[in-house]
Amino acid sequence: MAQYAIIAVIVLSIILVSLILLRPSVTTAQGGKMLAFIAFFILPIVATVFGASIHLENSKSTQFCLSCHVMEPYGKSLYRDDPAYLPAAHFQNHRIPKESACFSCHTHYTMFGDLTSKMRGLKHIYMYYLATPPPKLTLYEPFQNRECLYCHAGARSFEETTPHNAMQQQLADNSMSCITCHNKIHDVANLDKAKPWKGPAT
Amino acid sequence: MTGNASRLELSLRRSAYLLIAGLIVQGVTLIWAHPASFLLFMSLGGTLVLAGIITFLIAIVTH
Questions:
Q1: Are the C-beta atoms of A168 and A148 separated by less than 8 Å?
Q2: Last residue of some domain: A29, A58, A87?
Q3: Are A21 and A114 contained in the same domain?
Q4: Measured between CA atoms, how close is B38 to chain A, in angstroms?
Q5: pTM of the model
Q6: Between chains, do B49 and A63 touch, taking CB under 8 Å as contact?
Q7: CA nearest to A174, candidates A142, A138, A139
Q8: How close, in Å, is residue A20 to chain B by CA atoms?
Q9: A22 in a domain, yes or no?
Q10: What is the largest CA-CA distance in chain A?
Q11: How many domains does chain A have?
Q12: Tell me: the pLDDT tens digits for A28-47?
């Protein structure tokens, strides 16, 4: 919705700028000067600032991540009919929002991380368009437990079950990784061996 | 006076062309959900819009 509001601002700005371009004499009157200031200064700034904010928000969407073909297998891994697939179990059971599934577990990736992560994002675009992405994709850094604990910490089903109750401290300080035990993540190399899930019955 | 007015008009035209080009880039990239669209929005669209705004400000200050 906000996206269309900004597109409307852009269209309005283009119309007003075109009007002044066709009839520059309108700027001689006081009202025309105000109109020029709004069209040439205020509206373009509004469009740029809010447009950038919308782009940033859109980049959290599952559709955005999967728009690069190298991410397709990772998207397919969300649709495996096997609860051992950790992303699939979270995605299919609404433990994470479907519309921002990737971002839910990769919160500090590219644009949302530090400067190094942002530079990696630019490198990804370079690799995508001008070079060849590596055949096997890996995370730059070990997966952090904070991504899991953001939801699971404090949950009774997590804290009162064995062996989680005995290793709270190690999980909190990351000395023991969640994926040491929950180790079937995207597993894209074996995707074809798992039965696909066709999605919810409608 | 006429020379000044025509110089202002010329600067406004330059500013308008830059702004229209930048705004069109921004509008198109807003309806395209892809990592490259954000990059184009900021690098190409943002640069053109910024150049248009600066040209406009310089025009109204100097003429």
A1: no
A2: A58
A3: no
A4: 6
A5: 0.78
A6: no
A7: A142
A8: 8
A9: yes
A10: 79
A11: 2
A12: 888 888 999 999 999 999 99
